[in-house]
Amino acid sequence: MSSDGTFTYNGGKVLPGERQNLRYGISETYLGDPVRIPVTIINGEHSGPTIFLSAAAHGDELNGIEVVREVAHEWDLADLAGTLVCLPILNVPGFLAQQRYLPIYDRDLNRSFPGREDSTSAKRMAARIFENFIEPCDYGLDFHTSTRGRTNMLHVRADMSDDDVARLARAFGSKVIIDSDGSSGMLRTEAAAVGVPTVTIEMGEAHRFQRGLIDEALDGVESVFAEYGLRADATVRWPGWRTVIDDGNEKTWIRADAGGIVDMHAERGSLVTRGERICTLTDPFKSDNIAVEAPFTGLLVGVLENPVVYPGNPLCHLVELEPRVQAVVEREQSVDTGTEATS
Ligand SMILES: [Zn+2]
């Protein structure tokens, strides 16, 4: 951002009070045609922070696309104090193929940031995105879903040891925050490293628009806008309960110890108690059933959707809650189902 509030990128600028839809070239196909990502930049009438909202760094993770599009094109942003850089589809080649990775040698765009102009195709694409649309921002929200075949409840992943990142993570107002450094090359990790606090929002499954989760994420975006003063009328939300999962919490991906077909008995986001059966591994004759039980009481953050597994495939992601939070979740879920909580 320049001092007069103009947003500039290589090839253009957006003045305060202006909005621009553009298709920005980040690579070229085998035919020599441009590979262009859609970008919407909304520079508010009033000054304020610049926030990027990005999605589909993994090309088949669609929920975030709708979140970014609705913020950019359906929200009334007439009184916006700040600038939004909306990047609904980062990984265009993966999106076209409806797959997670860039089709070129299956590169992971979300391990290629901040990128480099004289390097691999993935890093060149990452560099174009990063230099023009990430580095000029003050904060960032990067939307993802679970990997194909699995689903997860909406949660934020953030490096909570960084105070600015932690503030952003809390501002989103999700019930669950998973504290992790992230990996080298991840958008959130590399953006934070250059002074752009960024968190990942995980929500649902690939290849779908899931309305309930999209609405929940939109509430989170509004809450972030309230925290940083982008919208005067918005308020920071409190999700009712919150847990920050860090090294102090037990957490595990429960994996299948046999190949088979899975009968899942528990839902994404539900509390399961120690010893409770989460799912059953079955064979084609339904004769050799293996019960998979919760090793500890915890919240099912993620579960399998595609019900077939090899030995070693993940079945569910279980995290332990602090006793106080667990009691609140028990009460909430017993109200939801109309049954007594068992403890
Ligand atoms: Zn992803």
TrEMBL record:
Single GO molecular function: hydrolase activity, acting on ester bonds
Pfam family of the protein (one): AstE_AspA_cat
Keyword flag Ligase: no
Annotated InterPro entries: AstE_AspA_cat, N-alpha-Ac-DABA-like, N-alpha-Ac-DABA_deacetylase
Domain (Succinylglutamate desuccinylase/Aspartoacylase catalytic) ranges: 48-226
Cofactor: Zn(2+)
Keywords assigned: Hydrolase, Metal-binding, Zinc
Gene3D superfamilies per UniProt: Zn peptidases
Protein name: Succinylglutamate desuccinylase/Aspartoacylase catalytic domain-containing protein
Species for this entry: Halobellus clavatus
